[in-house]
Amino acid sequence: MGRIYDWEPFTEVGPDKQCELTCRPAGYRFYVRQAERVKDGTPCTNTSTNDVCVGGRCLIEGCDGVLGSAAVIDRCGVCGGRDSGCRRVTGSFQNGTVPLGYHKILDIPPGATAVNITERRASSNYLALRSGTGSSVVNGRWAVDPPGEYKAGGTTFTYRRPRVQAEGQEERGESLTAPGPTTTLLQLYIIFHRQNPGIDYEFFLPVEKTEGERESASRERDGVRERGRETDGGRAPLRSSGTLTVTVEDPVPPPPVLVPSSTSYSSSASSSSSAASSEGWTPDRSRLRGSAPNRNARIPPRTDLPPDTQPPFVWRRGGLTECTASCGKGSQYREILCVNRHTDQEVHDRKCDSAAKPLPEEEPCNTHPCPPFWEASAWSECSVSCGQGVQQRQLQCRQSFGNRSTMVHPQRCASLSPPDATQACELRLCSHWEVGSDWTSCSVNCGVGKRTRSVRCVSDHGSVVRDQDCSSRLRPQGSEECHMGPCVTNWYLTDWSNTCSAQCGPGVQRRKVVCLTRGGGGGGDCVGDKPADMKACNGGPCVAIHMWYSSPWTQCNVPCGNGTQRRDSLCVQKTGTDFTVAPASECAHLEKPAAVQECEVASCQPQWFTTEWSACSRSCGKGLQVREARCLTVDKQHSQDCEPAAKPKQEQLCNTIPCSPQVGDENCRDRRHNCVMVVQARLCVYSYYKTACCASCTQSAQRAKRH
Q: Strands 578-581 and 569-575: what pairing?
């Protein structure tokens, strides 16, 4: 019977085979090409996901929507353009001493295309992006967003955070890229933590337009601003002159009006505004759009009101704090400021009444829903216990609303690239036993021996692994017995020697004879007599010849440097193996060996020379002898190259025996100064010296008796 398969598309083929109909049976690891081409219009991927198969080929869709046109969008954002309608703006931010936190790098103006912002290498810092109004786009509010796509300024920014590189490779830094063109001002920040490795930025701006085009664009911008002011309830237009727009902020009450300290800023502003309007004068402070309020502006004093008895410093509501969420409904509060009631200048909080400080009111902000995102579960276990397997995980499209996220329909994440739902896994390599060599020869020549072969555990990739990774039950035999037949003894002979023992006359030739068993052992009993191990030979009649015989060379006649060696030569007569001395005239026809040759020993070094020891300074009781030491070269010249550690001693003790007691006879004393030398020269035996050196000779005689 045949087998029924459930076929599914197999897309893991090369780019040149995407348009072939290739299928794989579900649950199996092989695939089959069912047809040479798929149906026209089948999606394929060449340079984008909009490419389709036509006639078995994957055709690229151009930016003009025509298949195979090869039209692409240039860096100016023009389809089929040649980068001629824009100019390149590039630079780098390399300041490494900025304070911790958010630090602004540059403004990206409207109309920018091919935006590319890249860290030079990975660091502890983060890139951040805000809109021109201060709303966070990427990495705002001290929170790090995941890598992905973020819409801002009329385009989509791709935020990338590098993965850890292999050992020995430098990690890449973060990057923000967008095709553009941007429609609003965007602000690039760095969240500074540690050393800045450098941030490179690049984008393209349209070239300057002609005067007529600029006037037309200016009129269009004025119309947009005018419409915007009509919808702005918190501002009232005063006048418009060209591109200069003057707006009026919320009015400030004049100084003479009595306002209770508990009255809020908004109510007092409303009442004073209506009162001023009835008088035909608007006490508002005007400023340019986007500029900070002029807190030093003064209002003319009123003289028709009673004196002001209110405190000079009051609480006012200021600007809004940053929203706690970039999307999905956050909250923000208005700042409560202590200001001078007359000058509207902000002062320290301690100057205002703390009991009258209004409570901050929470206001919702950024109520628009957050963009959806893919959330992946943990990986499942590997599908196989060894070898290449597959792990799976569940993907959910989720969206954040306020402080919580919920699962939404996957269609909302259709524009996002989903994470991998499957990945390859390998717990360990699959392995098997492999015979690596043939059987060796038997360990004996006869009888029962042993032979072996190499058996190893090899992975499916061909590498040798541990024996524990293979099944011991399936291991092939690595050794076995071998039978080489019964062992017998016999005589084994070598060949006769090639030469006779005598060069002339009778001699012998030899060979070796041993009794061995077949297995190689000795000492057995061989059958029959032992063959002869020597036989007679004759080298022919001996003829006497004369030759010079030389003795070995003598040692070199100098301890260092260049010298000579000598040897003696005799004329001898050789008859067979006998030698006899012959007259030198018998060898006269032969060249006599040289009797002298030059020799060279190591180069001579300077060495220490000393004089003889001087006479002992005392005849007894520890005297002192001295001598002089000098370093001399071979030429007997003074030198400083001798080893100081090898310098001979120049002093030594002498006559260390204790002196004998003084001679009792007062008349027995030394009458000469050189009596020490008289004792050393053994002259005390003479009566003259014995009398002249009585004390020294007497002491010497006493010492001789003690020893």
A: antiparallel
Burial class (CB in 10 A: 0-12, 13-18, 19+), 165: exposed
Q: How far from 370 is each of 326, 373, 378, 404, CA to CA, in Å?
A: 8, 9, 24, 11
> DSSP for 24-39?
EETT-S--EEEESS--
3-state helix, strand, coil in the chain (%, to 5): 10, 35, 55
Taking a C-beta distance cutoff of 8 angstroms, is the pair 450, 481 a contact?
Answer: yes
Which backbone phi and psi does 133 adopt, to 5 degrees?
A: -90, 0
* Distance separating alpha carbons of residues 674 and 668, to the nearest angstrom: 16
Spell out the residues 6+ positions from residue 665 whose beta carbon is closer than 8 angstroms to its own: 694
Q: List b or e across 123-153, with b for residues whose CB sees 16 or more CB atoms inside 10 angstroms.
A: bebbbbbbebeeebbbbbeeeebeebebebb
Q: What is the DSSP letter of 645?
A: G
3-state secondary structure of 329: coil
User: Token digits for 337?
Assistant: 């400021």
Is-cis flag, bond preceding 254, omega within 30? no
Question: How far is the C-alpha of 639 from the C-alpha of 642, rounded, in Å?
Answer: 7
- 267: which 2 tokens? 């109510």
In sequence order, what DSSP letters do the residues of 204-270 get, joined into one string? EEEPPPPHHHHHHHHHHHHHHHHHHHHT-TT-EEEEEETTEEEEE-S----TTS---TTS-HHHHHH
Residues in contact with 67: Cβ distance below 8 Å, sequence separation at least 6, in sequence order: 52, 54, 59, 60, 61
DSSP string, 280-315: T---PPEEETTSPP-TT---PPPSSSPPP-S-SEEE
Paired with 425 in beta bridges are 389
Helix (H) / strand (E) containing 273: helix 265-279
- What phi and psi, each to the nearest 5 degrees, are found at residue 289? -65, 130
Angle, CA 246 vertex, CA 244 and CA 252 arms, to 5°: 160
Tell me which residue of 246, 334, 329 sits closest to 282, measured CA to CA: 246
d(CA 85, CA 79): 12
Q: What is the 3-state secondary structure (H, E, C) of 56-122?
A: CEEECECCCCCECCCCCECCCCCECCCCCCEEEEEEEECCCCCCCEEEEEEEECCCCEEEEEEECCC
569-575 and 596-600 beta bridge pairing: unpaired
Structure tokens at 405: 């996220």
Residue 522 per-residue DSSP state? B
HSE toward the beta carbon, residue 535, CA cutoff 13 A? 10
CA atoms of 568 and 593, how far apart (whole Å): 9
Averaged in consecutive runs of 10 residues, what is the pLDDT profile of the chain (707 residues)?
79 82 84 87 78 85 77 79 84 83 90 92 90 87 88 92 60 88 92 88 82 52 42 34 30 35 33 32 33 34 49 87 83 89 86 84 83 89 83 88 76 88 84 89 86 90 84 88 81 88 85 78 72 88 87 89 90 84 89 91 87 84 87 88 90 77 72 86 89 88 77
Six-digit token string for 293: 């309020």
pLDDT digits (tens, 9 = 90+) for 291-315: 333 333 333 343 444 455 678 899 8
Rounded to whole angstroms, how far apart are CA atoms 614 and 173?
Answer: 87
Give the N- to C-terminal CA distance of the chain in Å, as an integer: 128
pLDDT at 298: 32
Helix (H) or strand (E) holding 13: none
